Model the fold of this input.
Amino acid sequence: MLSTPPLSLYVHLPWCVRKCPYCDFNSHQARGALPFAAYVDALLADLEHDLPLAWGRTVQTVFFGGGTPSLFPPEAIDAFLQRASSLLRFAPGAEITLETNPGTAEHGRFEGYRAAGVNRLSFGIQSFDDGCLQRLGRIHDSAQARDAVKLAQDAGFDNFNLDLMYALPEQTLAMAERDIECAIALQPTHVSHYQLTLEPNTLFAARPPAGIPDDDASWDMQERCQALLADAGYAQYEVSAYARPGRRCAHNLNYWHFGDYLGIGAGAHGKLTLGADQSILRRWKSRHPADYLAKAGSPAAIGGDEPIAPQRRPFDYMLNALRLVDGFALPEFEARTGLPREAIASELAQATARGWIRIDGDHVAPTELGQRFTNDVISLFLAD
Ligand SMILES: C[S@@+](CC[C@H](N)C(=O)[O-])C[C@H]1O[C@@H](n2cnc3c(N)ncnc32)[C@H](O)[C@@H]1O
Ligand code: SF4
Done:
């Protein structure tokens, strides 16, 4: 029997100062003045249109992602949050995160975001090495990254994440370690540490940069950085996520536990459990900002609606839950997918036999080997 999981709200803001050559997110280089007010109106129309999918439910977390949300002035974020919280109930103390590019930090911005209700920031730092930042085509250097974090701290933000990438062109193990040490020195509550991947349809995929560390070197970086973070009090709880006690990202945890989310904005994806007909719906929106602006709030802005068929649910659930170091509980699998645990018994047995997972009563968690080969473990659950 499907039960209704917690609900989050994802808001996509699709513009950046410049497109980074490794990035395959739905982000577009800003040309000229951006239509902030019109985009906020479009987001609200989009949200109103989706409301019947979430009637009577409470939003536990909000995440402004991008793109570069920090290109938007605080007034635009404030206008959105005020109106959105009158359309939908927000849980008291809901985690509200905004992604920030250090190249867009301006005096006064962070105070404005805080006053608007944002209580968590996520900085796209990537590296503290100026050579690495240049090779990644970033618009900021390491000094600007540090200054941006300090501005946010001065504005009262004590809960923030730093995004770093590793296995960068020409990066050595010592350089990767140094990035972690620089991050820790800024006292974030959370660090995301992503291995650089060459995504299809990016400049890096078309013309891979020289000096990308091989798999063994990348693994050494991940292990060493994980140890440095652990020593400084940041426990790994997901493939790429590390947090101080009590500071895990509630929004991302809801994704990883196969919770529900409304996806608002150009190209945003949502996932909603519809209890009345025992179905799970995925919905996504038109990708291109101009198209989205023209159509938001009407059915034409829906890029697609797709039910998650029962035979697909084990894979979709595992794709998320097996990323978590602590794994998941079988009763949660049953509640979130509407399937009995017997539906995955043979796959769980195979994964156990290969040493990829450990089952303890009702609890399933990846082993260290399983954490290293997450994709192989997850692919066991693909329906034929
Ligand atoms: C949507 S971006 C948002 C951050 C913000 N736009 C910025 O870049 O400053 C989220 C994070 O994903 C990571 N990321 C983006 N492309 C990646 C790639 N090809 N491989 C690994 N991590 C990537 C980066 O660390 C980035 O900060
Ligand atoms: S700033 Fe962030 S979202 Fe924008 S292109 Fe670069 S990595 Fe992608």
